[in-house]
Amino acid sequence: THYRVYTHGFHVADAEADYRLLPWGYGIKTHLTAGGFLGWLVRMDVSTSASGRFDGTHVVPLGYDSSGYSRGMQRHIAMVFHDHLPVITALSPAEKDRDPVSDDLRRNTIDTLSAMALLINTLQKDGRCNGDAQVFDGIRLTAMEAHGPTRAELPDGMAEFVKGPVLRCDFSGHQIAGFVKNSRHLEDWKAVHPGAAWFESFPGIGMVAVRIEFEHPKIGKFTAILDTPPKKQ
Length: 233
Known about the structure:
The chain has helices at residues 36-39, 103-106, 112-126, 186-190; strands spanning 2-7, 10-21, 25-34, 45-55, 58-70, 73-82, 85-92, 131-136, 141-152, 166-177, 193-202, 206-216, 220-226. By secondary structure, it is mostly beta strands. Strands 7-6-5-4-3-2-1-13-12-11-10-9-8 form a 13-stranded antiparallel β-sheet.
């Protein structure tokens, strides 16, 4: 599935998301590149993948890997999960200007893509998206909450292949650890930031996010819009 990402009315990035959810587990891959207006100003090209298994209403991540060019340099983060603890196997470059997240805080956390798998799986199986999770991306720890869904009308600007009505899940998140040392924006990162995802069920595929809105602490609201029909993997 392909998404165009906008902020302040400008097309700034393109995102690809491929995932497979099976009764026993999941695998997800994403690819994010700068595009449109932002593509003229900065370079960004990041590929991320994660896998894990389902355990009732929970996810048990197995591995996570994110690599590519962002924030001015080549970066790589990799983790494996042992006994519900993410163990960092690669972190390049070292984040020396950031407070480390202790083992105690990391225990029972899940990665960003596993959180996505949890939301979609819960929505498909139980018809709900209520829940919370502690999400660790290798450097930051974020507390996430989701609730819903509610029946919603299609937002403006959707492609013709997206047909309503759709289900809307609202979520929020705030960073709780892994802050940049002596940051002037500490209170902005600690604040709760809202978001929402609109889902439609496609025959033979299942629930697909057709629109995602989230708020960045420093930049403001981003909107990702599905612009090509989803394909069965």
